[in-house]
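Key idea: predict the complex, not the pieces.
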Amino acid sequence: MPAIAESAVEAVSAVNDGSTVLMGGFGNAGQPMELIDALLESGSTDLTVVNNNAGQGDAGLALLIKERRVKKIICSFPRQSDSWHFDTAYRAGEIELELVPQGNLAERLRAAGAGIGAFYTPTGYGTALAEGKETRQIHGRNYVLEYPLRGDVALIKALYADHEGNLVYRKTARNFGPVMAAAAAQTVVQVDQLLPTGEIDPETVITPGLYVDTITVVPSASAAARGEAPADAAQAA
Amino acid sequence: MTEITSAPAASAERLSRQDLARIVARDITPGSFVNLGIGQPTTVADYLTPEQRVTLHTENGMLGMGPQAHGDQIDQDLINAGKVPVTELPGASYFHHADSFAMMRGGHLDVCVLGAFQVSATGDLANWSTGAPDAIPAVGGAMDLAIGAKETWVMMSLFTKDGTPKLAPELSYPVTGLGCVTRIYTDCGIFHITEHHGTRGPHLVEAHGLSREEIQNRLEVDLL
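Result:
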């Protein structure tokens, strides 16, 4: 059974200096903001971060980059209108960037979790992002060899967990959560609500609890905005 | 290099961006599963009719995407690939990123509509980077979208502001995908990239504002 952390800071204690950290979220949807903020507090540095983006505004991952705690970022879309902290670090040569097409990023994470040694993908063939990589023609189509992307720790966000660690997500906030949960040695989840075991219909579980190591409850502002009171069940749990 | 001898034809005769979006929407086969790229392609959704029963895919993990959300509809957990809040339609479904891109890469989507900097005569696509040496690179889903769907359609102006054709013999911008574009919708004409007597190239199916001859004269590409 996963550990229940009393705080986000306690939840991220598995992250060490030099760790590879998978961070869920696409834009703000599914972004484990409180866990990332806890990383800021924890002081761990020299991190390799895997995320779709490279931080936005003056929050979360952007602040980790501002403090030069991220030595390398592996992402698909670092440049945004408000990615100024990444832009500054990158232009100063103070952060390494590995740019990966978004679908290859997701599939490399999936491969890591699924025990796949490497895979041939058509995405990126003939482009600058395939330079130096093995290629192969299979049944008349050209492919690029891509390797799995494993994390030491995954930080993700879900809507509900039960005490077995079974997870349910909400709408497009699911994004990278399930593949990152499987791709890391330690998976830490922040959830809106922790439900008693048995409260989640097994048919609706998206990430089975086997992938989850640590849970912490962070009631989200979006739940409050939706007018959803915390379930009594969560308090009883 | 072809000499550009005349100013663009009267803008009133070319397709407006709205007309172009309307024509792309018209050409989508009823019942299709479609991904509309960020920017101009997104506007195609405004012209799809309920009778077409087109299902929209957004690569961050949803089928059955509805129009942009406004006011009370806005939900930060329900966004499109451009990170704009959207709505869900009856019959919608959610899935994770690897499934979403597998859906695309696996050829399960019928059409993907994208913007472009440049398309080659054989359908190579450039739309992710201008190749400027000081630019910070970003690719997102562009390379996956380019090669994934059964058909990749491009929406763009046929010429740059200085009159350079964006339909070119070969790409000068960095490649997004090779040989992937099947149709090009432009303000001046609509091209299908097809095989003709063993040659792959653009076939002009509609001309707007310019005649076929005028378009041919201004391109360095031989129209089929």
